[in-house]
Amino acid sequence: MAQIIIGVMGPGITATPDQLETAYALGQALAMAGWAVLTGGRSVGVMDAACRGAKAAAGITIGILPSADGADMSAAVDIPIVTGLGDGRNVVNVLSSQVVVACGLGPGTASEIALALKAQKPIILMAMDPGAISLWQGLATGPVAIAANTKVAVDQIHQWLGNNGHKP
Predict the structure, then answer these.
(1) Which of 30, 121, 160, 166 is deepest in the core (most CB within 10 A)?
(2) pTM, 2 dp
């Protein structure tokens, strides 16, 4: 059976301390559930925090990097995918993930959420303004959930994945 990949998307340099803390805990929880964590791979913001959290729980991390040379890669990325696509890599982030978790919101994250909605990928929204949550829920035609904490997020992912989520 193929490895389950959960994408964690969120702001880079503009991430708040709360978003960084949530992303780190989320990375840990996803790794403890046995899932690989996919991010944009850079050494800043939610991307780095989620990868560091996953590594702290001995998880597998995948970084879909914007550059052609892997510059600015998080030290917590196990599998770097060097694309040279810049922000175009957001399509790869979304399509490579069974579930997308958006932790916070920035312009890049907004594009990833929109791409996930278009691709009918299940999406979990965390650490996000209520107005933004309402916008995404209003646009959704597929599964969208709000998670107040990592336990709620992991439970929701298990529910969506069913037995494929490897939870007994």
Answers:
(1) 30
(2) 0.95
What are the start-end ranges of the H helices in the chain? 17-32, 45-56, 89-95, 107-118, 130-139, 150-161
Whether pLDDT at 55 is above 60: yes
Angle, helices 150-161 vs 17-32, to 10°: value is 40
Half-sphere exposure in the Cβ direction for 156 (13 Å, CA): 22
Q: How far apart are CA 99 and CA 154, in angstroms?
A: 11
Q: What is the mean pLDDT of the chain?
A: 95
| CA separation for the pair 96, 79 (Å, rounded) | 13
- Contact by Cβ (8 Å): 153, 147: yes
CA 144/CA 120 separation, integer angstroms: 10
- Cβ of 31: how many Cβ atoms within 10 Å? 23
Residue 36 tokens read as 């690989």
Q: Could you give the CA distance from residue 73 to residue 66 in angstroms, rounded to a whole number? A: 10
| Residue type present at position 153 | A
pLDDT at residue number 2: 84
Which tens digit of pLDDT belongs to each residue from 104-132?
A: 999 999 999 999 999 999 999 999 999 99
- Distance, in Å, from the CA atom of 75 to the CA atom of 71, rounded to the nearest integer, reads 11
Q: How far apart are CA 158 and CA 35, in angstroms?
A: 11
Identity at 61, one-letter amino acid code: T
